[in-house]
Amino acid sequence: MRITQISVFLSNSLGRLESVCKTLADAAVNINTITILESGDYGIVRMIVDKPSQAREALQAAGFSCKEVEVLAVEVADEPGALYKLLEKTKNAGVNLEYMYAMTKPSGQNPLMIMSFKDIALAEKILG
Fold first, then answer.
1. What is the pLDDT of residue 80?
2. Are residues 88 and 61 both part of a single domain?
């Protein structure tokens, strides 16, 4: 299923992530999952939130560089080899995975993998 991710470019300095979280809290936006890619003095924060457009607007108004990105949320069976089987399908179709991170679900439900592809429509068809 396609979902909207918020990507924020941040300096890797004290309080920057806290400021992002406060901005979202003040805008009544809930963070469902978050991952941070750090590269020296900067980082990319990727989040799935309950109100993506509202989050982007609040963050931009607070001076953060951010954008909405369409990604796939793919349910993965909670068993050995399940992720491998999904990745094998995309590889065999020539669709390259750009990045991925996990989003947990309530107990007893399969986890979701958040996946980014250049050709999201083709990836969605393959994994759908």
1. 95
2. no
